[in-house]
Inverse folding.
């Protein structure tokens, strides 16, 4: 899915926590705030929806 090197530098845009990949849902999940970010074509989409 994603390389370990890439995962190491990816952090949650909200709380800066590291992200954990969910291979089943194809998302990156923040362990701190619980936000999930989709991965499209191997590229993580680290965007936060405007409230
Ligand atoms: Zn977070």
């Amino acid at each position: 899915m994603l390389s370990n090197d890439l995962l190491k530098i990816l952090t949650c845009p909200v709380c800066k926590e590291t992200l954990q990949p969910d291979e089943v849902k194809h998302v990156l999940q923040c362990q701190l705030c619980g936000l999930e970010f989709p991965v499209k074509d191997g590229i993580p989409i680290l965007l936060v929806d405007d409230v």
About this structure: The beta strands are 19-22, 27-30, 36-40, 43-44.
